[in-house]
Amino acid sequence: MEADDTNDADRYRAPALDKGLDILELLSEQKDGLTRAEITKLLGRNASEMYRMLERLVARQYVVRSPAGDRYSLSLKLYALAHRHPPMNRLISGALPVMQRFADTAEQSVHLAVYDRGNLLVIAQVDGPGTWGISVRLGSRVGLIDTGSGRVMLAFQSAEQREHMLAEHTRVKGEHVLDRDVLDAAYAQIQADGFSRKDSLQTVGVTDITFPLLGPSGQAIAALTCPYMRRIDEYVAPSIEDVTALLKDVAAGLSMAGNTPGQESD
After folding, report:
1. Is the pLDDT of residue 260 over 70?
2. H/E/C letters for each residue in 162-201?
3. What's the rounded Cα separation, in Å, for the pair 193 and 248?
4. What mean pLDDT is reported for the chain?
5. pLDDT per residue as tens digits for the range 17-69
6. Exposure string (b/e) for 195-212, b if CB count within 10 Å is 16 or more?
7. Is residue 160 located within the same domain as residue 179?
8. Which residue(s) pair with 3 in the sheet?
9. Are 62 and 160 found together in one domain?
10. Does residue 262 form part of some domain?
């Protein structure tokens, strides 16, 4: 039986496809990409066949070159293709019950967004239990640059992936234009803290609390955001510190990497 399996594997070999898949699998394990020479050495292939294969992968947008042109890393194309596949449905179905429990306990709404063609797409939304609140419509496209969801999504990517996402970005209606130095400082702070908690740039009186959902490599596959609204009447609702702690636990439970990074909120 084992011999038959080996014969079948040899009979249906596709060397060119194998080379391409070897490159994709190798690059998937690299945070900062690899040079062509490094790829050639690690895969034990000759330089000319690696050059041709890399050029085709770049042309088909599965692989991108670094700004200097000397390193190769995975693009977000495989990531985008995965969103059309049932695993995205599994993410939504797994997240919704947990999001509902969060909303009931925190008495706030919560939404889940993923990267999609230069901005973010809201794929799940749960309203809080009260008579009033703020929510983002399911299926909405929200800005990559000036939202908590977008900044957290960008913060937890490799440098190459972040540049690719920013290059694909197109402004949505009302989106603020922000200085790149300001954005880079924000990404560094979010990475250090493990989350973002900032006043909304879209709505007065709202504080966006956002945590990443991390994949196995530690990069964000989605962003979980609570647009926190503080009550000023006599009803005592959960504090922003309590809600931040609750959302952190939800994001950690949904992350493939096991837990979210960063420190406890003060």
Report:
1. no
2. HHHHHHHCCCCCCCCCCCHHHHHHHHHHHHHHCCEEEECC
3. 12
4. 85
5. 888 999 998 998 887 889 999 999 999 988 888 999 999 999 998 999 888 88
6. bbbeebbbeeeebbbbbb
7. yes
8. none
9. no
10. no
Encode 7-17: b = buried (16+ Cβ within 10 Å), e = exposed: eeeeeeeeeee
CA angle 217-147-111, nearest 5°? 70
User: In this structure, are 7 and 48 located in the same domain?
Assistant: yes
Is the pTM above the cut of 0.70? Answer: no
Which of 32, 51, 74 is the last residue in one of the domains? 74
Q: Is residue 259 part of a domain?
A: no
* Residue that finishes a domain, picked among 37, 54, 74: 74
Both tokens of 48, joined, read: 């000319």
pLDDT exceeding 70 applies to what percent of the chain? 88
Same domain (yes/no): 66, 95: no
CA distance 111 to 222: 10
Q: Which residue has the tokens 């309203």?
A: 127
62 in the same domain as 30: yes
Domain hosting residue 98, numbered range: 80-254
Report the Cα 210 to chain-centroid distance in Å: 12
Residues 56 and 166 in one domain: no
Residue 266 counted as domain residue: no
**Whether 124 contacts 138, CB under 8 Å:** yes
Q: What is the mean pLDDT of residues 191-207?
A: 91
Quote the number of domains for the chain: 2
Q: What are the tens digits of pLDDT across the range 74-112?
A: 887 776 666 565 567 788 889 999 999 999 999 999 999
